[in-house]
Amino acid sequence: MVSPDTTGLPSGWEIRISNSKNLPYYFNADTKESRWEPPEGSDTNKLKEHMSTHHSSAGINRSTAANGSEGKIRAAHLLIKHNGSRRPSSWRESKITRSKEEAREILQAHEAQIKSGEKTLGDIATSESDCSSARKRGDLGFFGQGDMQKEFEEASFALQPGEVSGIIETASGLHLIQRIE
């Protein structure tokens, strides 16, 4: 994590890179809040300087080439959020009110379709995932250790290419993960 003195962000905030959009966003590790716009209390001059140096298009070289890069894997997921998710909204619903149990039931039905071969994770993710990666059939691209939430990362790295996880719970909601590469 970069010191707030150099980023211009208030205490507790850091800059992360979105895996679905490959763009910088702001994350508060204490409150688990994430947002695209700078948090209140940011030093805009320091932040502009930091962003232009470290997060301009010239500074972002995250590989999404077919071969990936050393130590990285590629995975897709199907996310079902619930009212306890850190951001209970998505491109599909502005306010998600379902309980965690209801989200689990939905995901279990999707898991059954995948296991039976009736549908693929990508087929379902396109219309049912609460992640913006839905438009890419759930594909999150390549990521390495430390790029994802701990539970998600551990489950992803434990899979073999082509394998689909059971239901994984993170602060974002409930996931089915399929390792691609």
Automatic annotation (TrEMBL):
Record domain WW: where: 7-41
Enzyme Commission (EC) number: 5.2.1.8
CDD domains (UniProt xref): WW
Record keyword RNA-binding present: no
Compositional bias per record (Polar residues), positions renumbered to this chain: 54-67
Single GO biological process annotation from the record: positive regulation of transcription initiation by RNA polymerase II
Catalysed reactions listed for this entry: [protein]-peptidylproline (omega=180) = [protein]-peptidylproline (omega=0)
Origin: domain of life: Eukaryota
Chain positions covered by the region annotation Disordered: 32-67
Keyword Membrane recorded: no
All copies of domain PpiC, residue ranges: 70-181
Protein name: Peptidyl-prolyl cis-trans isomerase
Compositionally biased tracts (Basic and acidic residues): 32-52
Sorted UniProt keywords: Isomerase, Rotamase
An MF annotation (GO) of this entry: peptidyl-prolyl cis-trans isomerase activity
GO cellular component, as recorded: cytosol; nucleus
